[in-house]
Amino acid sequence: MNRNQVLPQVELSAEPSALKKVDFCAPQSYKGSGFLSIPDLPRVAEGASVINPGDGFDWSVRTHFEDSPGSEPRQILDLGLKGHLHLVCQRCLQDCAVDFDESRRFILVSTEEEADSHPLEDEEQEPLVVSQHFNLLETIEDEILLSLPLIPKHPEGFCEPHASTFGDEGVEEASNERENPFNILKNMKKN
Fold first, then answer.
1. How confident is the model at residue 171 (pLDDT cuts 50, 70, 90)?
2. What is the model's pTM?
3. Is residue 124 part of a domain?
């Protein structure tokens, strides 16, 4: 590729089905944006506690080529996600709204070997193996799932712990049921 060559820029369709086959191997750059509702993202929908009609994610994608010393220019993909999802609060077991505002940068590579050789300490750009039929929708869904909180909960002081989860009675019963394993040794010593 000639360094001074101007590459065409392709506008991505906002339709979820069109995002399932994007040719990132073509010598062109891409840009696009749109909205994905929760039903468009089945793995995200599985974890949602409630699905409201307006819930979903605004996404934006932009690719460009950066010069790389000593090699061909590298294609970079910038992905932005903003959205809203309802999960179950693990403190009170009620509905909890989670807002997302994430941005990721990927360096597009064509083989697993290239991805494996990418420096691990480069946290700003993750390698992403692409193809002529790359599923961008799946990558967007993966990034949403990776951004989910491990333990979703309301802000501190917003809710009270659910009695069945953290109640005093349940803790006492559990501690009474568990017998100290060293009691056997203690009894043996007395005999």
1. very low
2. 0.75
3. yes
